[in-house]
Specification:
This protein is mostly helical. It is built from 10 helices and no strands. About 70% of the residues lie in helices and about 0% in strands. It binds zinc ion.
Amino acid sequence: MELFIIIIFFLFGLVFGSFFNVVGYRLPKEESIVNPPSHCPSCNKRLTPLELIPVLSYLIQRGKCRNCKTKIGLFYPIFELITGILFAITYIMFGLNVDLFISLIFVSSLIIIFISDYQTMIIPDEIIIFAILAKVIYALVSSDISLIGILLNGLIAASLMLLLKKFGDKAFKRESMGGGDIKLLFVFGMYLGFELAIITIFLSSFIALPYSLYILNKNKEHVVPYGPFLAIAALLLYLSKVDFMSIVTMLS
Ligand SMILES: [Zn+2]
């Protein structure tokens, strides 16, 4: 039974991942999420229901549009799979309750922010506001969390990030990070507590360093978005709470 529910969450994640690809790509461009329906970006042919099935459709179409043969990026099925796996792990961590719901919102926000910042260099305000509101409502209905506490945590984390940005701008004589990164730290503070949120700053810089050096070495003018690395760091810290041994026992 338990394994069955885990699989259901994994499949849910695949479908949501497919949706997050659309949201992450369209939201920063102020495009509607539902209209036009999913289409090939190259020939504009509308996707059939079969072509909308996460991951499988990519395999069936052998990674190409069936109409114009344009290659479909591996990015899409990979993010569907990642979302599926993260949804399943989140269920295993929390079971069916309100904590599961709020954690799925956090994980989903991170995935969308990764996709949109990576593809368009923008962290959509809509996602930040959604994540903040969800946690505020959660604090209002839950007796274990204080609303002032989580807002203070967000404020401390975002203030430190703003301070680092001021230093960074001066040191590099150019914009060291965007306003979206500071807002994102507010969300991290609310969800992870300010201590872990501050650790995400250091962890993300550590992860971003080799990639940035590689990119800047190829093209000095290139700007590397910071949001995806912040999202990875937050996910790693979030996953560090997972008891992986219990998953092994559960699955065997
Ligand atoms: Zn096409």
